Amino acid sequence: MGYLFRKMPTAYLPDEDQGVLMIQAMLPANSTLEQTEAVMKQVKAYFDEHEKDAVLSIMTVSGSNFAGRGQNAGMAFVRLKDWKLRDRPELKVTAVAGRAMGAFSQIRNALVFAFAPPAVVELGMAKGFDFQLLDRGGLGHDRLMAARNQLLGMAMQNPVLTKVRPNGLEDVPEYRVDVDWDKAGALGLPITAIHSTISAAFGSAYVNDFIQGGRVKRVYVQADAPYRMLPGDLDKLYVRNAAGKMVPYSAFASGHWTSGSPKLERFNGFPSLNIQGEAAPGRSSGEAMAAMQGSVKNLPQGVGYDWTGVSYQERQASSQTTLLYAFSILVIFLCLAALYESWPIPIAILLTLPLGAIGGVIGTHLIRHLPNDVYFQIGLLTTLGLTTKNAILIVQFAKARVEQGRDLVEATLEGAKLRLRPILMTSMAFGFGVLPLTFANGAGAGAQKAIGTAVLGGVVTSTFLVTIFAPLFYVVIQKTLGKGHVQPAALNIEPNPSGN
Question: What is the reported pTM?
Answer without folding.
Answer: 0.73
